Amino acid sequence: MNVTDAQPDSAPDFENWSCPLPLRSHDRVVIGHGGGGKLSAELIEHLFLPAFGRVEGAEMHDAATLTLTGSAGGRLAFSTDSYVVRPLFFPGGCIGDLAVNGTINDVAMSGAVPIALSAGFIVEEGLELATLGTVAERMGDAARAAGVPIVTGDTKVVDAGLADGLYVNTAGVGVIPEGVDIRPSRATPGDVVIVSGPIGLHGVAVMSQREGLEFGTEIRSDSAALHGLVAAMLAACADVHVLRDPTRGGLAASLCEIAASACVGVEYDEASLPVPAEVAAACSFLGLDPMHIANEGKLVAFVAAADVDDVMAAMLSHEHGREARVVGRVVDGHPGVVVARTRLGATRVVDLPLGEQLPRIC
Amino acid sequence: MKYLDEFNDPELAGRLFDEIARVTTRRWAIMEVCGGQTHSIIRNGIDQLLPDRIELIHGPGCPVCVTPLGVIDKALEIASRPDVIFCSFGDMLRVPGSGRDLFQVKSLGGDVRIVYSPLDAVQLAEQHPDRQVVFFAIGFETTAPANAMAVHLAAQRGLTNFSVLVSHVLVPPAISAIASSPVSRVDGFLAAGHVCSVMGTWQYGPLVEQYGLPIVVTGFEPLDVLDGIRRVVVQLEAGEARLENAYARVVSDAGNEPAQRMIDDVFEVCDRQWRGIGMIPASGWRLSSRYAAFDAELRFGVDGIDTPESSVCRAGEVLQGLIKPNECEAFGTTCTPRNPLGATMVSSEGACAAYYQYRRLDTVPVSIGVG
Fold first, then answer.
1. pTM of the shown model
2. Is the pLDDT of residue A33 over 50?
3. Interface contact B254, partner A, CB < 8 A
4. Which of residues 317-336 of B touch A (CB under 8 A)?
5. What is residue B67's predicted lDDT score, i.e. its pLDDT?
6. Cα distance from B234 to chain A (closest Cα, Å)?
7. A49 — contact with chain B (CB < 8 Å)?
8. Looking at the complex, does the CB of residue B127 fall below 8 Å from at least one CB of chain A?
9. Do B337 and A339 touch (CB under 8 A)?
10. What is the 3-state secondary structure (H, E, C) of A267-321?
11. pLDDT digits over A193-212, tens only?
12. Do you find a cis peptide bond into A87, omega within 30 degrees of 0?
């Protein structure tokens, strides 16, 4: 082998360098449609919403807000989520506590106090009952710890080979306190963006367990119910503008969706991001961006600058907000677009991921 | 882990920016050869902070982007077979072939799996003796040793259900092709550090002599990239052209000799089509005839597939540095990562995708929302 001697006999055809025509659309569901990025958003926008019909005044949020009429009055937050995580058990949690905490969080991101959950199981024929039992116990433990009972449920069994062992769906309902109005379109120029703690832990924990990757130390999922943290924040300041739990698609997807909903610019400083060293190392190794990695026990909050100190104080004294940090701000410029300030002082646009996160080749 | 912080240090970076600005008196165009470097430059905004007189040209060093359409079509054909487990690095799954990609093959029931190492594919072959396991062996010199090792191990273990679809490409012939092009504006090169960690630096001295252009072997963290640029500029300003190694903590002159021996054993040099570029003679590796039994093209009879590329986008001009991605009419409008017109928009290492991901605001009226 001596490639330096292998000079081209003739120069390549620079005049006609070209690229092939691409794929413009999908006529079947691909895995990225479930990734929480652009493909998921397109599915909702172009397939589900036209079929279901839009509800007037409704916003795309983690939970729907239902206004009760009649003498009772009041507002409910209502949300559902399905859990298809593989493996079923991972460092820091399992599909069961994830399903409880995740739906509690979706409800809590409206500022609601969660009051009840449903649990639906799609079980693969052949799953060991002990496994199902352990998952159920973990769900019960998580629900009791959160003080939110599981009050109704359903079980279906499918043929072997069809459900990765077990899929879980949970739905949750909560009561939105009087005077609380939390939704993405309330993000306003001047608002400050707070993240409740270290990002990227859940996604990296599951990925390293699934793929058998080791990064020196064990990375544990951050799965946790955040309604207590939200209540503490609202006690300090009822006028929190936006809350979101950055699950699939990571913090980047949450910020992009909020910027688009409110038609405001969002800026954050990379140097302020709470990225644990082991997450940074894993992401660097795999060519992934911590901003795109799923979290299951973190929230991002948008609050008026005048309220930041109160909200931060409440967060820092809560077990799930002890490492909260201000990471960015809402600006007048570039409406609908999220911009990162790099450590070196340059700027770059931050986009919704397309679909699944793909490890880069080199 | 330490390296991530130390080689991102804003203060040290500031000093390098100042030093580059201080020594620059003329306009210089520097090509970073490797897609990983392009990604780092755009992600960190290094190009925004350099003096205006320093222009970075993003080279054809993204292995995903340059894998030819015909090879992708072969992969799609093989992956569609019911008896096959098709294993690939992750970012190859979204690269469009003729009318479909590996994700779509997967959605139609193809057993397509992302692996992190070709050795995982060998292990899969051992675990599934009743299935054919095929690994998509693409990339520059960086990925070649592990790919060669996979074939070597499969042979040693007598696996008859393992094969590789090989489309390796080589950096030095690409540098030659660019440097000898009559339209090239490149004044100096940042060579790809990880390629050199395998191959050493010895291949690049003859290129420096032949073309009279500085080549600096460069790493990937911001300080690495800046030090590479600084060294190229210092040489250019002094009227010199030398080979320098700015990545000595990883790269030795001789490179990784056991890895090179493994490559020599398994692969042989061949002419190679580069997607969007065309044929560059002696610019690739294929399986040597000794290992023909592990050649997926022969095993599955796809060696006849030869898909011509249609010319629509301007990726070729981007790869030569004749235009920036955002100077293409299609950029950000009809051509996005969602609907790529060319391979440079597909991989996050591709110049167009890197620009779209991180630099859209410079060029596109701000009306971008979800979807």
1. 0.83
2. yes
3. no
4. 317, 319-320
5. 87
6. 22
7. no
8. no
9. no
10. EEEHHHCCCCHHHHHHHHHHCCCHHHCCCCCCCEEEECHHHHHHHHHHHHCCCCC
11. 999 999 999 999 988 888 77
12. yes
Enter the tokens of residue B59.
Answer: 């080279």
Closest CA to A178 of A79, A74, A67: A74
Question: Is A1 an 8 Å CB contact of chain B?
Answer: yes
Topology of domain B65-170+255-299 in CATH is Rossmann fold (3.40.50)
Range of the domain at A139: 61-176
Query: What's the CATH number where A229 sits?
Result: 3.90.650.10
Number of structural domains chain A divides into: 2
Q: Are residues A190 and A69 in the same domain?
A: no
CB pair distance less than 8 Å for B361 and A339:
yes
The answer to whether residue A35 is domain-embedded is no
Do A346 and B46 count as a contact with CB atoms less than 8 A apart?
yes
Number of H helices, E strands in chain B: 17, 11
Rounded CA-CA distance A80/A63 in Å is 8
Out of B42, B93, B281, the one facing A6 most closely (by C-beta) is B281
Domain chopping of chain B, boundaries = 2-60+174-240, 65-170+255-299, 317-361
**Which pLDDT tens digits describe chain B residue by residue (371 residues)?**
466 778 889 999 999 999 999 999 999 999 998 888 988 998 899 999 999 999 998 888 888 878 888 899 999 999 999 999 999 988 788 787 877 889 889 989 999 999 988 999 999 999 999 999 999 999 999 999 999 999 999 999 999 999 999 999 999 999 999 899 888 889 999 999 999 999 999 999 999 999 999 999 999 999 999 999 999 999 999 999 999 999 999 999 999 999 999 999 999 999 998 876 778 999 999 999 999 999 999 999 998 888 776 555 677 777 666 788 888 888 888 787 776 776 677 766 677 887 887 766 654 333 322 22
| Residue B278 backbone class (left: φ over 0; alpha: ψ -120 to 50; beta: rest) | left
Q: In the CATH hierarchy, which top-level class contains the domain B2-60+174-240?
A: alpha beta
| Residue A271 contacts B where some CB pair is shorter than 8 Å | yes
Token pair recorded at residue A355: 């679909």
Which residue in A3, A42, A337 is closest to B361 by CB distance? A337
Does any CB of chain B come closer than 8 Å to the CB of residue A219?
Answer: no
CA distance to partner chain B, nearest, from residue A87 (Å): 16
Cβ of B268 within 8 Å of Cβ of A42? The answer is no
DSSP A4: G
A267 near B CB under 8 A? no
Q: Is B361 on the interface with A (CB under 8 A)?
A: yes
CA dihedral A154, A159, A163, A169 (to 10 degrees): -10
Same domain, A73 and A153: yes
